[in-house]
Amino acid sequence: MIARQVPLGAYALFAALLASAGLPIYMHAPKFYVDAYGVGLPALGVVLFGLRLVDVVQDPLLGMLAGRLRHRGFAAAVAAALLAAAMVGLFAVVPPVAPLLWFALTLALLFSAFSFLTILFYATGVQRAKDVQGSHLRLAAWRETGGLIGICVAAVAPVALGAWLSQPFAGFAVGFLVLAAVATIAMHSEWQAAGAGPDIGLNALRPVLADGPARRLLLVALMNAAPVAVSSTLFLFFVDARLSAAGAEGPLLLLFFACAALAAPIWSALARKFGAKKMLLTAMGLSIVAFAGAVTLQAGDVALFAVICAASGAAVGADMTLLPALFAHRMAQIVPEASIGFGLWSFVNKAALAVAAIALLPLLGAFGFQSGSENTESALWALTVLYAALPCVLKACAALLLLMTSLEDIQDV
């Protein structure tokens, strides 16, 4: 089978769908429910943390479900329909019950559909990568670049739509519905081409967990996701309180994700020439340098922080492209059905988010930090250490683990 028979554009489009669904979970939805319905931030935080815990636990189970399916195309279509319905319910429907309850119900549905589709999507990519010239890296480059473009569009769409629509979030939800239909149709042949995997259960976890390189890669994924979880949790506080630059969050986020999207295919090309592991270690080094630079920032250093956002965004482009490609390559070697492996992969990434959500903000509060108020220099220093210095340490640990992991650093991963 030749490379053109695998529609790489369909993978990019479906990745954009998933990415544009993921961003509202963490960025748009809480603020929308505070502004539109007056729901309190503490209550939203408790609901989000509870949903994250459920999401973390269910991922391995969803991975097993995805592996057992005999009609993946139908299951993907149903899950995509539920994902779109949850997005419309979240943003375009006036809550028929208490807003906080409606927020929890729609997000629970959105989380579940999103997780199932993500696992199925990545597992399908593992099965089809052998039919792509350049294998896992080339497919990953298309997939993750599409995802990063989806994040960029989702980040600015509600603001941009506000210039034309009185209800921009409803417009965003309708646009998402259209994208879900188009992306699902584009991927239809791929679900069928990948075929059904063998009947799997909990025993299918054994070859993944028994494999040393796979275990090490899962641990690398956990340590590598932790800096992103830390920085994303504290980003708004850092820009507002440390840099005294309220209102600059949107452009800085867009710069970050745009640089990640632009860098992803470059990292992929370099990995094909020099090896995925070497390039991933290089990107980790760039990320450490960028976060180390953030430690020195003071109020008004927005331009310098923009440079840091660009550099760290470029490094994330490698994280999102090369690390999943290395794991996918390993799964193709040790298990006949990759969905169970990517259920674990999703589990460790979301575990980092859950831990960050419950640990960082109380810790920051223990140092006397108060959002929206004047803070002491010691409180601001604690914010800086948690936002910038802690990710340096975590990223260095991830790099050391990867360096110690014995993998085939082949160019056609």
TrEMBL record:
Which InterPro entries does the UniProt record give?
Answer: MFS_trans_sf
Pfam families from the xrefs? MFS_2
Q: Transmembrane segments in this chain: where?
A: 37-54, 74-94, 100-124, 145-163, 169-187, 217-239, 251-270, 279-297, 303-327, 347-367, 379-403
Supply the alphabetized keyword list: Membrane, Transmembrane, Transmembrane helix
Q: Protein name, please?
A: GPH family glycoside/pentoside/hexuronide:cation symporter
The signal peptide, as residue positions, is none
Where does the source fall among the domains of life?
Answer: Bacteria
